[in-house]
Specification:
Helices cover about 40% and strands about 15% of the residues. The protein has an eight-stranded mixed β-sheet with strand order 1-2-4-3-5-6-7-8, sandwiched between helices. The protein has a single domain, classed as 3-Layer(aba) Sandwich (Rossmann fold), CATH 3.40.50.1820. The two termini are about 30 Å apart. Helix 3 crosses helix 13. The protein is an alpha/beta fold.
């Protein structure tokens, strides 16, 4: 979810990448990193990911979603921008192998879901209504663990105001409900550069640059992984990405309402997972405020070192442990974001 300070170099980097590198990325065979490799248990390619998806015809359009596993415990994974359920592919595989049923929708206009002509159908309130229709009316779910990331947060805060939202547990990954630590920074010049960078001439390099800026270890974004992020954006999801991103300033006015909604949460005590090196959403600011608002104990918070904004991409095993409520030997002693208000 790039803000103005990051969008400008992304747009400029797009032009340089096209001219110098021809939109190339790190081949799988040449990945070099100090981090241990992530075991691939999900689909190898984006085409394989889409092939396993199901589709629901909703009022706003056709929504694609993954429905894997068959256990009694259900986990719903809600992505943000500019991603899709592809971001959760390794989390899905691990949870399904461990006996969970996992539902991972593509937001309307993103991933393999339909792209409506009406831009209002792409914004947060309409996305919330579509997800509620899928989970409650189509799938008839009653009680699940609800995982949110990025714009999946405000979409969920909208959902929580509807009695059909019957999640029992809430897991929060790098999202926002507060001004502090989140600066959309939208303005005329940043929009101009975004539009320039995402034109047909530069769009692939632009999206590659944007995704690369969301991880701490760029080496994990091998060519097959990057293609899974870029393919839907190049096929039209880029417009939805911009519509949602451009709505960020309007969402700031909704933050007090979202905070009141979260304060009224009566499900299980939430769990929070955050990338220490998230360049868009500060762990120092957002995590502390989520903890205080939701009265989350420190033992239910993990700040992952060496991880950026896309925590499910960089640390799927840690995300799965927190979804399941398991402590990880590597992160059991993880320090919280420094704050004077932490208990």
């Amino acid at each position: 979810m790039p803000h103005a300070r990051s969008l400008l170099p992304f747009a400029l980097a797009s032009i340089v990448a096209v001219a110098v590198a021809g939109c190339s990325s790190t081949p799988d065979s040449k990945r070099e990193s100090d981090s241990p490799p992530i075991e691939v248990r999900g689909p190898e390619t984006y085409a394989e990911h889409v092939d396993r998806m199901r589709f629901a015809d909703l009022e706003v359009g056709r929504m694609a979603y993954v429905d894997e596993g068959s256990g009694p415990a259900v986990v719903v994974l809600v992505h943000g921008i500019p991603t899709s359920s592809w971001m959760y592919r390794e989390v899905i595989a691990r949870l399904a192998d461990d006996g969970y049923r996992v539902i991972a929708p593509d937001l309307i206009g993103m991933g393999a879901s339909e792209r409506p002509d009406d831009d209002d159908a792409l914004l947060v309130p309409a996305q919330a209504a579509a997800l509620l229709e899928l989970l409650s009316d189509e799938l008839a779910l009653d009680g699940w663990t609800h995982v949110v990331h990025d714009f999946g947060g405000p979409i969920t805060w909208e959902m929580m105001e509807d009695p059909r939202f019957k999640a029992r547990e809430l897991v929060i990954l790098d999202t926002f409900a507060f001004d502090e630590g989140w600066s959309p920074g939208l303005g005329f010049f940043s929009k101009l550069m975004t539009e320039a960078g995402s034109t047909a001439l530069f769009d692939e390099a632009y999206y590659r640059s944007a995704i690369t800026g969301m991880v701490h270890d760029g080496d994990i974004l091998t060519d097959r992984v990057m293609k899974g992020y870029c393919k839907p954006l190049l096929d039209g999801a880029g417009h939805t990405y911009k519509c949602l991103y451009y709505s960020a300033n309007d969402l700031r006015e909704e933050l007090p309402r979202y905070q009141a909604t979260l304060a009224a949460w009566r499900g299980a005590e939430p769990r929070i997972v955050w990338g220490r090196h998230d360049p868009f959403l500060s762990a120092d600011e957002q995590v502390d405020r989520f903890r205080r608002l939701l009265e989350v104990d420190a033992t239910r918070v993990r700040i992952l070192e060496g991880t950026g904004h896309l925590v499910a991409e960089e640390s799927p095993d840690e995300v799965v442990r927190m979804i399941k409520g398991d402590a990880s030997p590597r992160t059991a002693a993880a320090t919280l974001a420094p704050s004077k208000t932490n208990p």
